[in-house]
Amino acid sequence: IEINYYIAILYTYLNDGKKEGFLVGNIKNMGDMLIGEWPYNEENVSNSEDLYLQKLDLLANSSKFNNICVIYHLK
């Protein structure tokens, strides 16, 4: 598998101060894919797609979050 780049997105929930994040990688010939979440929890490795879609709520409802940080590695 050849990965072109990674994007890490970290954020804080406004309602409870909980900090979370996720890692997206661009895989050659496949496009962007969700690779993992932060903080890593081995019990959640087999998460359903629904859980990851909830994380993407960050895009649609950014007003619920604070301290949004996007880390993009340039080659």
How would you characterize the overall build of this protein?
By secondary structure, this protein is mostly beta strands. It has one domain (3-72). 15% of the residues lie in helices and 48% in strands. The chain has helices spanning 49-55, 57-60; strands at 3-13, 19-27, 31-38, 65-72. Strand 1 and strand 2 (19-27) form a beta hairpin. It starts with a strand and ends with a strand. The mean pLDDT is 82.
What percent of residues are in strands?
A: over 45%
How many E-type strands? 4
The average pLDDT value, as a whole number, equals 82
User: Which term fits the overall shape?
Assistant: globular
Radius of gyration: 13 Å
How far is the N terminus from the C terminus?
Answer: 17 Å
List the helices and strands and how they pair.
Elements: E1 3-13, E2 19-27, E3 31-38, H1 49-55, H2 57-60, E4 65-72
Antiparallel strand pairs: 1-2, 1-4, 2-3
In short:
The chain is mainly beta. It has helices spanning 49-55, 57-60; strands spanning 3-13, 19-27, 31-38, 65-72.
